[in-house]
């Protein structure tokens, strides 16, 4: 794991940085933008996109302005509109997304009052006539009387400008100052207001602000259900209208305080609970006591009725009966168009309509303060999984990333759809993608370079699959010299001199290339390390640089595979007119020195030591016994599942201690009964031979020759028996044959 320490450290840094953002220790603007984009996308993908006919938008549109004149209209016309809506069409509730802040002087009453106080103050007839006309000309008074006693909710706006000037009258606060003493709730706080004329506000059933909160990117996603103004608390227009639908009182107390809070000891507010005849209507709010606007769809998710059509009686009776009416405007010149997740020029009045139906249907998403805990836990879980990517291959790392990504998305969408809960997703997505890119980039630009260097270093000796295995933990491998028990193999072509003399240089080159390629493939397929070519000879070893607990077995399997490959190779050579090739192979197992050895000019990764020299001697004496493969005692003792024929006990040149030499016959499961019987007879011949029982040895060897005439080894021993008859060995001879040449 140490080779991945840098990647682990970088991954943890990314994770900790994002955890700090999720835990609100600091805020990273680009993640907030990403969360906003994701939220808007989820809103658009999951909104029902159907028309809710419970709420009707009474539109001051271009058509109305064209037929009724520019805005503002006279209060007499607005009074007529209200009477038509209630008396003629039977709407249930009417809300105004506009402010009646200025008196209406269009009737001329103000001029007549001036005359009555000055030029015509002594005219009894004028004063009498004015008294009779006042009720008809007092448009504001008539409007106030029109809305009095009717379920009309007036709108007003609040402002955060500290140097602004307030105007108009506000309704009574729904909760007085001190309602939340002892609780730390970050309400939206306003400094100024723009309200309706006092006579209108007193006459209306209630009032509510129509201020959405504009987020950092200019998008309206929330509306404060309760806002703080001069220490008191005022409700939103949509909330005031819903409470009117439920028949609740205009001001506090609405209900016991404990209904505000969803859990004991929690200082924030999760929801506003409104008691109804059927139970409790819960309105989820966020940490600022603002409700997320539950957009039903793009503009047009509610029925729009032009006020021009109402005033001209073009609306059929009963079409608006029992509806909740919202008077607002879509005319661009009246500046009530807002940027929202579902449109860049979205009518503000439709925001209130969405909130009203969302409250009544219970579809407002919940985003309390404690969701940051869920975000932190999810981020931590996914992050710890992603930090472990360096342990995986690129393919598995990609699959793991996709699984984590799918898990994060599934959890987020599950809570969105089934729990109505908004969980931030930006940090988790960014973390998963950032750690994936980081690990893939680091692996490509840093570790792949190290692997390329590693491959260049060992690739000429070690099979590609072993280089790949080594490159996963490069610090575990070194070309420095060390002692280890290994197995070495030497192979040589028999009679190579005569073969080379019978071929042209070009033919010899091609023959050697094909032969060495075929034999090298066998070595590599059996996890061998190719040491060198020595003319026609091949040197290879097992157990380094990659440890191999079965190095002796793999070396012997390789030797048998090399011999097995010769018939097909010779058949191809014969077709080309080339001579047949036979080889001898010597293998020995023992302690050797392995490492990068050589001079300042040239080095090679090789093995040295007495065990290596013995392997070379064994290859050299294979022709003395007419066998293809000879292995030393160390190799024979290391292998359990290969049947061997003991060939002799020898003392090779340069060594004082005699060693047993063996010929591999085959894997245990592949050697038949007849071969085992032959081996039993051969072992009997060896016992007679070493006991200097020449007659018995000769008879046994004759039987073996008749049993296996192709085995030249038996003939070699018969020759040796004949020689020893004539020149008996010295006393104490134990059957060891000495070789005076290499």
Distance between the termini: 48 Å
Segments where pLDDT lies below 50 for 5+ residues? 252-264
Structural class: alpha/beta
Assembly annotation: single chain
- Beta strand count: 26
pLDDT averaged over residues: 86
Strand content: 15-25%
Q: Please give the count of helices.
A: 23
Main β-sheet, in a few words? 9 strands, mixed
The share of residues in helices is 40-55%
Q: What's the domain count?
A: 3
| Mass-distribution shape | rod-shaped
Q: Tell me the radius of gyration.
A: 49 Å
Explain the overall architecture.
With about 750 residues, the protein is of the alpha/beta class. The chain folds into three domains: about 1-45 and about 370-455, no CATH class; about 45-360, no CATH class; about 475-670, Alpha-Beta Plaits, CATH 3.30.70.1230. About 45% of the residues lie in helices and about 20% in strands. The chain has 23 helices and 26 strands. Strands 18, 19, 20, 21, 22, 23, 24, 25 and 26 form a nine-stranded mixed sheet that branches. A hairpin with a 5-residue loop joins strand 7 and strand 8. Helix 1 (about 5-20) packs antiparallel against helix 12 (about 370-385), helix 13 runs antiparallel to helix 14 (about 425-460) and helix 22 (about 695-705) packs antiparallel against helix 23. The model is unreliable at about 250-265 (pLDDT under 50).
């Amino acid at each position: 794991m140490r080779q991945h320490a840098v990647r682990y450290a970088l991954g943890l840094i990314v994770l900790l940085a994002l955890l700090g953002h999720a835990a609100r220790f600091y805020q990273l603007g680009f993640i907030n933008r990403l969360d906003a984009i994701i939220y808007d996308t989820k809103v658009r993908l999951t909104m029902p996109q159907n028309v809710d006919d419970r709420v009707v938008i009474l539109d001051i549109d271009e058509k109305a302005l064209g037929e009724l004149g520019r805005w503002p209209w006279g209060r007499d016309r607005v009074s007529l509109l209200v009477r038509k809506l209630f008396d003629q069409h039977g709407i249930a509730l009417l809300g105004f997304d506009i402010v009646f802040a200025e008196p209406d002087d269009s009737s001329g009453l103000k001029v007549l009052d001036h005359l009555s106080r000055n030029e015509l103050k002594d005219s009894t007839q004028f004063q009498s006539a004015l008294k009779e006309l006042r009720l008809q000309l007092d448009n504001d008074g008539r409007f106030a009387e029109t809305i009095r006693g009717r379920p009309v909710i007036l709108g007003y706006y609040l402002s955060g400008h500290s140097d602004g000037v307030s105007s108009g009258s506000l309704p009574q606060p729904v909760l007085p100052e001190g309602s939340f003493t002892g609780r730390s709730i970050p309400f939206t706080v306003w400094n100024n207001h723009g309200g309706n004329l006092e006579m209108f506000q007193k006459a209306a059933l209630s009032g509510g602000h129509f201020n959405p909160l504009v987020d950092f990117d200019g998008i309206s996603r929330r509306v404060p259900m309760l806002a703080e103004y001069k220490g008191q608390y005022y409700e939103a227009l949509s909330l005031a209208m819903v409470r009117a639908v439920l028949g609740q009182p205009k001001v506090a107390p609405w209900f016991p305080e404990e209904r505000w809070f969803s859990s004991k000891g929690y200082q924030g507010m999760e929801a506003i609970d409104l008691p109804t005849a059927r139970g409790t209507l819960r309105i989820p709010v966020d940490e600022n006591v603002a409700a997320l606007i539950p957009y039903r769809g793009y503009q047009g998710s509610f029925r729009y009725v032009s006020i021009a059509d109402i005033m001209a009686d073009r609306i059929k009776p009963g079409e608006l009966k029992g509806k909740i009416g919202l008077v607002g405007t879509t005319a661009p010149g009246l500046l009530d168009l807002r940027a929202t997740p579902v449109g860049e020029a979205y009518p503000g009045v439709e925001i209130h309509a969405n909130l009203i139906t969302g409250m009544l249907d219970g579809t407002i998403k919940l985003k309390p303060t404690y969701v940051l805990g869920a975000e932190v836990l999810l981020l931590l879980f996914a992050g710890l999984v992603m930090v472990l990517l360096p342990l995986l291959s690129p393919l598995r790392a990609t699959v793991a990333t996709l699984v984590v990504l799918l898990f994060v998305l599934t959890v987020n969408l599950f809570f969105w759809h089934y729990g109505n809960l908004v969980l931030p997703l930006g940090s988790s997505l960014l973390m998963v993608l950032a750690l994936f890119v980081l690990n893939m980039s680091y692996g490509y630009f840093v570790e792949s370079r190290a692997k390329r260097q590693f491959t260049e270093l060992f690739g000429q000796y070690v099979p590609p699959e072993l280089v790949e295995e080594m490159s996963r933990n490069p610090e575990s491998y070194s070309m420095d010299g060390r002692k280890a028990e290994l197995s070495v193999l030497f192979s040589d072509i028999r009679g190579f001199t005569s073969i080379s003399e019978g071929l042209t240089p070009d033919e010899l080159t091609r023959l050697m290339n094909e032969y060495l390629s075929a034999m090298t493939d066998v070595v590599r397929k059996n996890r061998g390390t190719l040491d060198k070519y020595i003319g026609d000879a091949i040197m290879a070893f097992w157990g380094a640089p990659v440890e191999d607990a079965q190095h002796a077995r793999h070396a012997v399997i390789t030797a048998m595979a090399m011999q097995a490959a010769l018939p097909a190779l010779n058949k191809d050579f014969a077709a080309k007119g080339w001579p047949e090739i036979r080889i001898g192979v010597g293998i020995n197992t023992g302690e050797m020195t392995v490492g990068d050895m050589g001079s300042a000019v040239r080095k090679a990764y090789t093995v040295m030591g007495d065990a290596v020299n013995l392997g070379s001697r064994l290859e050299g004496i294979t022709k003395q016994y007419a066998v293809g493969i000879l292995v030393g005692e160390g190799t024979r003792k290391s292998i359990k599942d290969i049947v061997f024929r003991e060939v002799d006990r020898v003392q090779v040149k340069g060594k004082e201690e005699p060693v047993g030499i063996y010929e591999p016959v085959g894997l245990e499961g592949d050697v038949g009964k007849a071969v085992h019987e032959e081996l039993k007879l051969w072992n009997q011949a060896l016992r007679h031979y070493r006991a200097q029982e020449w007659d018995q040895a000769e008879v046994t060897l004759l039987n073996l020759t008749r049993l296996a005439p192709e085995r030249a080894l038996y003939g070699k021993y018969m020759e040796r028996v004949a020689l020893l008859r004539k020149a008996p060995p010295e006393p104490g001879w134990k059957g060891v044959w000495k070789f005076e040449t290499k």
